[in-house]
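Exercise 7.
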Amino acid sequence: MANRNTDSVFLHLLRCGVTGEQPCEALLPLSEQQWQAVWQTAQQQAVSAVVFSAVARLPYALRPDNRGIFVPWLSETYSTKTTGERHTQTCQRICQKFLSAGYKACVLKGQGVALLYPDPTLRMSGDIDVWLWPEDIAIGREASLRRRCRRCLDYVRRYDAHVEPVYHHVDFHVLRHTNIEVHFTPSWMYAPGRNRWLQRWFEAQAAEQFGHTVAGFCAPTPSFNAVYLLLHIYRHFFSEGVGLRQLTDYYCLLHRWQPTAEEAAAIADAFRHLGLRRFAGALMYVLGDIFGLEQSRMLVAPEERSGAMLLSEVMLSGNFGHSDTRFKHYADGTAGAYFTRVRRNLRFVRYYPSEVLWAPLWKLWHFVWRIAHRR
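Solution. The predicted structure, written as tokens, is:
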């Protein structure tokens, strides 16, 4: 028992928490120390409540210690559920507030993605990311990003004159317990040509996203999320590290939604233009390995070699890279963050050469961009 791989038990319980399968009792029982390791990994990966939903279905004799682990874990799960419900209500209120101020609003990731889970309240909530579009700027118009950025900054700076934006968003500190990120654009690419294509794609997709309502607010369509959520995972993979919460989001999307032939072709075209085909294959491999995603639901064929590397990085780095002991975790915008991430990403150059080699130049350009957009 002392040699049991607790990561394997954790991944099995995560799968059961998402799919509803009954946990395999042959993997149990665990010692208190092993249960502590499973719980800690679930916290590091920001999937603690999802894993607990599987633990709670175990026979009483196979559960972790009540006082030391089970009850605190139950309390943590209750807190996650309460926060998720509050975040959904907050999304409804702030989207209405933005609309009354003259801005269309679409909630990215977060509570929109949570609706794909068997129990939406089990997804751990973070910041609320809202893509804004001024109503007097035509949706779908090319080259409108600069104007939209300026208009969104003008609005945010009515409440905080000293905010400093990054290329795609600015923090909007108006709520006590929740941070809002106002997005001018959902994401970006380091390679300039691919970034131009991506921004045109976002503009072309915008009208449908700002008209797609779920749970009382606008959220992206599944076909948009098939590209955007994968790109979001890709961005975190290169910037600081990515955890299993984001991968679980993508599994829930593919498990709940089957693209039409036309949608699948459009998604494949987007992957090709953005150079994401190999990363998509790596993600499909991981989703098949952890969650048992059927190949018929995969958007591209799985790639074992790059997928095994991705899974290794996910387990080592944890949510947003906070558990990665190989590199010091820096806040964005510091010199330490720049050199650490450049050195970290060089390990991936044989897998994703374009993104790795463009990253240092993009970060230097972005440093100048941030100075230019300070007030």
